[in-house]
Design brief:
This protein has 149 residues and is an alpha/beta fold. 20% of the residues lie in helices and 15% in strands. The protein is elongated.
Length: 149
Amino acid sequence: MNLSNLKPAAGSVKKSKRIGRGQGSGKGGTSTKGHKGAQSRTGYSRKVGFEGGQMPLQRRIPKGGFKNINRVEYAAINLDVLQTLAETMNLSKIDHELLVSKHLVGKRELVKVLGRGEVKAKIEVHAHKFSATAKAAIEAAGGSAHEIA
C-alpha cells in the first residue's frame, strides 16, 4: 500500500444530488423545491423558531420573574470543611487567600461561612459573612470570626 492507491472505503462516499440541470435528470423543473411559496424562492432562510406562521413557542409562553441586580452572591464554606482544613494543615488562622490557594473558592468570590458540621479546633476565621450558627460555633470552640469588608 502506498499514497498513490489510497481511496475511501466502498460505500462511504455518496454522489451529491445534482438538481436544476434539466428535465432529463429527473431533478429539473422545480428542482425538488415544490411549487411556489417562500421555500421555493431564492435567498430564503427560515427564521429561528419559525413554526410556519403558527405563534412560536417562545411567544406563546409568558415572561416570568426578574433578576435582582443588587443581589450579592456568596460562595458557601461549611464548618466541617474549616475543621478538616485546620486538622490536616495544623492551622490557627483561615482566611480568603488560603481558601483560594486550596481551590475551595475563586479569587473574586465572596465567602460566607455556614453552620453545617462542628468546629473543635481554636481557629481565627476571616470571611465576608457568617451565619449566626457558624459564628456561635466558632466562638464556642474558643476561636474568633472576623468579617472582611
